[in-house]
Amino acid sequence: MSGVRKLYERFRLLIHEGAKFGLIGAIGVVVYNLVNGWLHFKLHLGPLTSATVAVIVTTITSYIANRYWSFRHRERTTVPRETAMFFALNGVGLLIQWAVVGFTTYGLGETGKLANLVANNVGIVLGTLFRFWSYRKWVWAAAQPAPDGHESLEPALTAAPGQPDDAPSTGDEAGKPS
Predict the structure, then answer these.
(1) Are 63 and 108 in contact (CB under 8 A)?
(2) Is the distance from CB of 62 to CB of 124 less than 8 angstroms?
């Protein structure tokens, strides 16, 4: 097996999750910029208010897309728990974005459209790195192996006690001799 193939196999799950997450994120960035620009420059809401509303809109759509596409194969808990964690971690991502937008607007005094666009997108990138890491760690965690001495999550696929894993079956599922 080539070195590239080995690397791919080792990081396959991360690559696939990252690509799906990235596609959803790219769509979210477009939606975010449209909503934020409309609220800030057309309706004249403040830069942080516009950013907050735009993040709420994109958070709802990205939660649904990530839960049912990017991370659909990962362990599930309850929808209320996942939703609360997702929104809380998105809130941390928003704080990261606010820091960049606030620094640019109020710290540097840059209030033009280009400065706002750049600040928002730099904040989005930094917040997105945090979100991807945190979703994989806390919202949709990887499946954990059963502790030693505990039954597997798929008991129908395990051997009976004292029977080797590759022992031939003595009958079909209905209990009739073969």
Answers:
(1) no
(2) no
